[in-house]
Design brief:
alpha/beta; Nucleotidyltransferase, domain 5; 3 domains; five-stranded mixed β-sheet; 16 helices
Length: about 425
């Protein structure tokens, strides 16, 4: 920080006032009094005191930047601290209450005001502000300025899915069970050789062939992809992701994904280490607890098929959905399932891998046939395992966590700038 101040006091690329104030702070570091500094720099004594106070108010924020952020950011922050305060200028055309009403209007649905749109634009918001007689006239740029002031972007949306579980305690229990399966996976594999695997399906993968050759990007140009294509059918991919090793250990690609296909996939996955125990994490798709998978698990753990009962007569383990799930989740079995809560696919680690496959293979892919699609998917998964696949750094344990990111302290200028914003937000609230 001292070196930056010394540099600013000698540079001519910054404003003269910034140079003078940097030198003022440097002399204060050398224990000069306000009167001595004022005499040396030809300033008023009260002016020197004001800038020493402002530096003192900002030093905590500057130290935080110096520790956690690049030197360039620290230099920008110091220059900002040494700049003049914002001038009051002419009287504000819009009162704080009017600005708060504009922000409040932007936070509501346009359909509440008989507009057949789902999000506001600056032009439509300015028009509605005038119609509501909040102000007599206002420009689009001024409306957008108010929105920027409180970091409000009406057009931005982020997708989310709310769980349909009505029993909150049951939901919390299921979430914690899934998280514990992940967090204890490495220890279980080391002590008992248990494999923890996430399983899911990617469905309706389209083998589309572009009708013209893709043009690769060049300097100053972007790539071009033909928008028309010929359909060659669809495939479904069922994958098994090893939580500990961070590898796709088994991949099944076929035209169907019924209960028999799923049971066969689990059988093939277990066959990679038949003498070990297995924990499979998956969603609540009905094929994941159907009769075929129950019979397959029973066979693999050495259980007599006659003990399973009869699905048609609704007797025994096969008799109902509840009994089948209880059998598959039995912790005493060497092969057991852990089901994530409904509409909580974010808890399944393999969804991250499917996202990679969708971006790297499917998004810009060109497939001459279903066989070509299958070959390219398997080739990518082999490449993914060999090059940059790694275990997911799972830290969530099923309980809400406070953000570990420390909020940066504010300088004296930032405190003044935020005063009006805080007042507006308080009025909106």
């Amino acid at each position: 920080m001292y070196q930056i101040l010394r540099s600013l006091s000698n540079q001519t690329v910054v404003a003269r006032s910034v140079q003078q104030r940097a030198l003022c702070i440097l002399l204060a570091f050398d224990r000069w009094t306000n009167s001595e500094i004022a005499t040396e720099l030809d300033l008023e004594r009260h002016c020197v005191g004001r800038w020493r106070i402002r530096w003192q108010q900002s030093v905590e924020a500057l130290l935080s930047i110096e520790i956690n952020e690049p030197t360039a950011e620290l230099r920008r922050a110091i220059i900002d601290v040494l700049c003049d305060a914002h001038r009051s200028g002419r009287a504000a055309k819009f009162s704080t209450q009017q600005v708060a009403q504009v922000i409040s209007l932007a936070s509501q649905s346009p359909r509440d005001f008989d507009r057949p749109i789902d999000s506001w634009t600056g032009r439509e918001l300015a028009d509605e502000v005038r119609q509501q007689q909040i102000v007599a006239s206002i420009s689009v740029s001024r409306v957008n300025e108010f929105l920027r002031l409180v970091k409000l972007k009406p057009q931005h949306r982020k997708g989310w899915c709310f769980t349909t579980e009505k029993d909150r305690e049951l939901f919390d229990t299921q979430v914690q069970e899934v998280c514990q399966a992940y967090l204890q996976a490495a220890e279980r594999q080391q002590s008992t050789g248990t494999h923890t695997v996430c399983v899911d399906e990617m469905t309706s993968l389209q083998a589309n062939e572009r009708r013209a050759e893709t043009k690769l990007p060049g300097p100053g140009q972007i790539g071009k992809i033909e928008c028309q294509y010929t359909r060659h059918g669809t495939l479904s991919l069922t994958g098994s992701w090893d939580v500990v090793t961070g590898q796709m250990i088994n991949t099944t690609i076929d035209e169907t994904r019924n209960a028999e296909d799923f049971a066969l996939h689990i059988r093939e996955t277990v066959a990679t280490a038949p003498d070990h125990e297995w924990v499979f994490v998956m969603d609540n798709l009905n094929t994941h607890y159907g009769e075929p998978i129950v019979r397959t698990v029973a066979e693999l753990i050495g259980m007599d098929q006659s003990e399973l009962g009869d699905k048609k007569r609704r007797k025994g383990i096969l008799g109902s959905t509840t009994t089948r799930r209880e059998f598959l989740t039995d912790a005493s079995h060497s092969i057991r399932f852990v089901f994530i809560p409904k509409h909580s696919s974010w808890l399944n680690q393999i969804e991250i891998i499917f996202g990679v496959i969708a971006k790297r293979v499917m998004r810009h892919g060109n497939f001459s046939s279903k066989k070509d699609l299958r070959d390219k998917l398997l080739s990518f998964i082999e490449y993914f395992n060999r090059t940059y696949a790694r275990p997911v750094d799972w830290t969530y344990d099923g309980h809400p966590k406070e953000s570990q990111r420390l909020k940066r302290p504010r300088t004296w200028r930032q405190k003044r700038q935020n005063t009006k914003t805080d007042e507006i937000l308080a009025l909106v609230a």
